[in-house]
Specification:
Layout (H helix, E strand, L loop, with lengths): L5 E5 L4 E6 L4 H10 L5 E6 L5 H11 L4 E5 L4 E6 L9 H4 L8 H9 L1 E5 L12 H9 L3 E4 L3 E5 L7 E3 L5 H11 L5 E5 L5 H13 L2 E3 L5 E5 L9 E2 L4 H14 L1 E6 L7 H9 L3 E4 L3 E6 L7 E3 L11 H8 L5 E5 L9 H7 L3 E5 L2 E5 L8 E3 L3 H13 L3 E5 L1 H7 L3 H7 L3 E4 L1
Helix pairs in contact: 1-2, 1-7, 4-6, 5-6, 8-10, 8-12, 10-12, 12-13
Bound molecules: uridine-diphosphate-2(N-acetylglucosaminyl) butyric acid.
């Protein structure tokens, strides 16, 4: 089990070759919740084999959904025979925070849901008040206890939803709630992440009426029925960013296939600012680097700006860049947990609130380090790849939630990394 497993990385190898990027974790998760909305059969392509996906599928199975996942070709066959009246048990729901995204679909489809509270996590408290307030505005009666969200409604009604801050899964939950609600819903300050575009494109194919895709204002006219549809999940921009950042740090030349360059433009621009070369081809991105990098400054912000999900990875390579880099994290209040681990590897980083100052040290040294979330884990792997000597990265259960065949892909590019 990955809980006890760790990586042993011998640093110093350049990365060269081609890597195929999997389907986006943050796209398939909301899309799985979308399948609650329409009875029938679905075939999904480019589905990543991740524990988060498996855990959400388990949650859905309690509502009557059945599935079979062909891992070797990333195809998911899913069938919704009609949603039953069951709730998923707490121990299953709590395995993934994204169970919260079933709420909008369940309310609009069957009028009730009881979910255990997703609670906080390592990167921040991660409240769900925006989801709850928006659903209340649409007519849901929601009672919150310490452990449960109890929600009922006599059919959801369209409403004007104004999110105070951009929220990715909040927007996705309300889209799912609104597509079959009675009347018109307008979502202001809707998040614009590409995964939301993927969900909307699928819903349009299923017969939903949604205007404003890719903008901050979505206008949704509820329809009575939706039809199931087959769909291919977009490439995972954060997995692609992770590989691009790794190559910039180790040096070498890697072609990334299966991701839309527009989805990671903010990251590619920062890598160029640090000295990496980027070439956008017809269907791929080539990242080339000598491994010698200049320092820079980044601020994490909602799409299309620099994503919080690539902040820790970027910090890893800034540890060795020439000069002083400043990183500001504006999305989550506790997303610098990798810092202490980088320090064990010789990094010179100080933090003050949400700002980290990194003084490049030229070279990191191998050490034993532990991950606290998905992205911190991939960042520690990058640090191990660029460090001198051996690095042990612990807590791979986090990595396996968001990256599929990570070490296999890195090994194919020339890295010396083993899972033990
Ligand atoms: N927020 C609230 N109340 C809410 C919802 C959000 O205060 O009801 C706050 C959050 O605490 C945070 C900010 O708003 O400070 C933005 O949170 P958001 O709701 O956008 O985050 P999320 O939807 O829970 C998704 C991704 C995260 C990613 C963030 C930000 C999925 C499944 N998860 O989370 O992905 O970091 O958006 O882009 O889409 C990851 O993949 O490693 C990951 C953590």
């Amino acid at each position: 089990m990955s809980q006890m497993e760790h990586f042993i990385i011998e640093g110093g190898n350049q990365l060269n070759g081609t890597v195929h990027i999997d389907g986006a974790k943050n796209s398939i998760l909301p899309i799985l919740c979308t399948t609650i909305l329409a009875e029938g059969d679905y075939i999904f392509g480019n589905v990543p084999d991740l524990t988060d996906v498996q855990n959400l599928l388990r949650t859905l199975s309690y509502f009557g959904i059945t599935y079979s996942f062909e891992k070797h070709n990333n195809i998911l066959f899913l069938s919704n025979p009609g949603i039953n009246d069951e709730d998923a048990p707490q121990k299953v729901v709590q395995k993934t925070r994204m169970s919260i995204m079933t709420l909008g679909s369940l309310l609009t489809t069957r009028g009730h849901a009881k979910l255990s509270f997703p609670g906080g996590c390592a990167i921040g408290t991660r409240p769900v008040d925006f989801h709850v307030e928006a659903l209340r505005k649409m007519g849901a009666d929601i009672l919150l206890t310490d452990t449960y969200i109890h929600a009922h409604c006599e059919g959801l009604k369209g409403a004007e939803i104004k999110f105070l801050h951009s929220t990715v899964t909040g927007t996705q939950n309300i889209i799912n709630a609104a597509v079959r609600a009675e009347g018109e819903t307008v979502i202001y300050n809707a998040a614009m992440e590409p995964e939301i575009g993927d969900q909307i494109n699928l819903l349009l194919k299923m017969g939903a009426k949604i205007d404003g895709r890719g903008t901050g204002t979505l206008v949704i006219e509820g329809v009575k029925y939706l039809a199931p549809a087959n769909w291919r999940i977009i490439g995972d921009r954060i997995e692609a960013a992770t590989f691009a950042i790794a190559v910039a740090g180790t040096g070498g030349e890697v072609e990334l296939k299966g991701v839309n360059p527009d989805h990671i433009e903010s990251i590619l621009l920062m890598l160029m600012a640090c000295g990496a070369e980027i070439e956008i081809k017809d269907r791929s991105i080539v990242v080339k680097s000598s491994g010698r990098l200049d320092s820079t400054g980044i601020t994490t912000l909602p799409f299309p700006r620099f994503p919080t999900d690539a902040q820790a990875q970027f910090m890893a390579i800034m540890c060795k860049a020439a000069g002083i880099s400043i990183i500001e994290e504006t999305i989550f209040e506790n997303r610098f947990q990798q810092v202490e681990e980088f320090q064990k590897m010789g990094a010179n980083i100080t933090t003050k609130g949400r700002v980290a100052t990194i003084r490049g040290v030229g070279e990191l040294k191998g050490a034993t380090v532990s991950a606290t979330d998905i992205r911190a884990c991939s960042a520690l792997v990058i640090a191990g790849l660029i460090a001198e000597g051996e690095t042990e990265v612990r807590n791979l259960k986090y990595l396996d939630r968001g990256y599929s065949k990570f070490e296999e892909k890195l090994t194919n590019l020339g890295a010396n990394i083993k899972r033990k």
